[in-house]
Design goal:
The chain has 232 residues and is an alpha+beta fold. The chain has three domains: 3-104, Band 7 domain (Tetrahydropterin Synthase, Chain A, 2-Layer Sandwich), CATH 3.30.479; 105-148; 149-229, no CATH class. The chain has helices at 34-39, 44-60, 65-70, 72-87, 106-148, 151-167, 178-181, 194-211, 218-229; strands at 3-14, 20-31, 92-103. The termini are far apart. 14% of the residues are buried.
């Protein structure tokens, strides 16, 4: 015989965690033994409908709200098995059960919405905190690198000037680093004092050595060095 369907009247059920829900379901049945469906039960379809209602209340009453919302297909399969076990004696096969809807009271819906919003906000704050922690570690490592390598500050300075000069057509005025200007204050030296010139030469050699590993910055450092060498 053909498969028949019927809708189970909405059932109000108290879940295991004391939440009232309303459950709508659809049951698909087929008469497999017409004789038994008449002899074994007075009205096979009506009896199956009543049995489906009580089965919903029994199963959902043993589940928590979280289980009901996340395991609807599992619960539907369990209902199908339990119903078919009984109705098979009536000559009726329960082929399928579908949970159409699980409705919550409006107050519970507001509570769940607030809880979900709080969870999203907490997750957002956690991500922001993790980002700040990572940025702090990077800044700490950068500060340590600069502290361990004094010339890194000058390299970074010249690299920044190089980037600016490549992005703009404006004229840039490059201030001479203090370690050069301190040696080029020639007005404080006597022209016949060779030790002063030795200090200048030493400073120039150190700067040339520091910037030799940065080819892209050599043209910037050479500006300072060429000016300094004019005094020899």
């Amino acid at each position: 015989m053909r498969t028949q369907t019927f809708t189970v009247p909405p059932q109000e059920v108290l879940t295991r965690d004391s939440v009232t829900v309303t459950v709508d379901a659809v049951v698909y049945i087929r008469i497999i033994d017409p004789t038994s469906s008449v002899v074994q039960v007075e009205n096979a379809q009506f009896s199956t409908r009543v049995l489906a209602s009580t089965t919903i209340r029994n199963i959902f009453g043993t589940k928590s709200l979280h289980e009901i919302l996340s395991q609807r297909e599992v619960i539907a399969n369990l209902m199908q098995e339990l119903l078919d076990e009984v109705t098979h004696k009536w000559g009726v096969s329960v082929e399928r059960v579908e949970i159409k809807d699980v409705s919550l009271p409006h107050q519970m819906q507001r509570v769940m919405a607030s809880e979900a919003e709080a969870t999203r906000e907490a997750r957002s704050k956690l991500i922001a905190a993790q980002g700040e922690e990572k940025a702090s570690r990077c800044l700490k490592e950068a500060a340590q690198t600069l502290a361990d390598t004094p010339t890194a500050v000058q390299l970074r300075y010249l690299q920044t000037l190089n980037t600016i000069s490549a992005e703009t057509d404006s004229t840039l005025i490059f201030p001479i680093p203090i370690d050069i200007t301190s040696s080029l204050m020639l007005s404080d030296y006597k022209s016949d004092d060779k030790s002063n010139y030795d200090d200048i030469a030493k400073t120039i050699n150190e700067i040339e050595r520091d910037f030799s590993a940065e080819p892209t910055l050599k043209h910037l450092s050479s500006v300072y060095l060429n000016e300094a060498k004019k005094y020899f």
